[in-house]
Specification:
The chain has 271 residues and is of the alpha/beta class. The chain has two domains: 6-210, Alpha-Beta Complex (2-enoyl-CoA Hydratase, Chain A, domain 1), CATH 3.90.226; 214-261. The chain has ten helices and nine strands. Strand 2, helix 1 (30-45) and strand 3 form a beta-alpha-beta unit.
């Protein structure tokens, strides 16, 4: 589909999806949502893509839902509530067949490169990416308590798992804005990078995942991690044992051993 509110490109096995309404700090619309969903599915289905990067154009990541839409919502409900995103492939647990949550079912790593303010819905969506990389210019706020709203889209489940219960309550109750360094301290983001050259540096991290490690390993580990949130320890151990046995007959396992012994760069196939 032709994109009007995002940019999409692939380079060195990294698909970059850029929210592109810079004059509105990339405020989220129903059209933007449809385009992002399509782009992520396209990247997931492309054998030439091994990592996906989500970022924003201009000085913001995403200022949340477009306020011009929210202003007309009193008594009418969420304009996106009727749409439930269907995840990729079969056998995906129902918990992941929800709006934004379905990103956890994408079988490739998704990195959020948060280049500026990430507020409201713009705060929620990166939580369903696998890694969050922040620019020194980034800032974060849940904002929902200041809009008469609640912890939307599973935020009450996901946020405490990332930052702990007390910190989640603090961020949700107060809607206070935090900077990138505090986000790093809380565990909300994994890395903070300089503002200058931020996108290139974030893409470099994505390229490391695309070239330096086994795509098959990442695919299975991603599923293990998120499935484990619903499992007991014994079930997670049993599944890990089964998956480990399955590795020994794969091309990526053989390559993982060979490139180490031969002291060369890996050439993983994902098989």
């Amino acid at each position: 589909m032709p994109y009007q509110q995002i940019l999409y490109g692939v380079s060195e096995r990294v698909a970059t999806v850029t929210l592109h309404r810079p004059d509105r700090l990339n405020a989220w619309t129903a059209q933007m949502e449809q385009e992002v969903n399509d782009a992520v599915r396209q990247a997931a289905a492309d054998d030439g893509v091994r990592a996906i990067l989500l970022t924003g154009a201009g000085r913001g990541f995403c200022a949340g839902a477009d306020m011009s839409l929210l202003s007309g919502l009193a008594g009418s409900g969420d304009p996106w509530a009727a749409t439930v995103d269907v995840p990729l492939g079969d056998g995906i647990r129902r918990d992941f067949q929800k709006k934004y949550v379905w990103l956890l079912s994408v079988p490739k790593p998704i990195l959020a490169a948060i280049n500026g303010p990430a507020v409201g819905l713009g705060f929620v969506i990166p939580l369903y990416c696998d890694l969050r990389i922040a620019s020194e210019a980034a800032s974060f706020a849940t904002i929902f308590s200041k809009r008469g709203l609640v912890a939307e889209y599973g935020l009450a489940w996901m946020l405490p798992r990332l930052v702990g219960l007390g910190n989640a309550l603090d961020l949700l109750f107060t809607s206070r804005r935090i900077d990138a360094r505090e986000a790093l301290r809380l565990g909300l983001v994994q890395r903070v990078l300089p503002e200058e050259g931020f996108l290139e540096a974030a893409q470099g991290l994505a390229r490391e995942l695309a070239a330096g490690v086994s795509p098959r390993s990442l695919r299975i580990m991603k599923r293990q991690i998120y499935e484990a949130q619903f499992q007991g320890l014994g079930e997670a151990v049993d599944l890990a044992f089964e998956e480990t046995l399955g590795c020994f007959a794969t091309e990526d396992f053989r390559e993982g051993v060979a490139h180490y012994l031969e002291k060369r760069a890996p050439a993983f196939t994902g098989r």
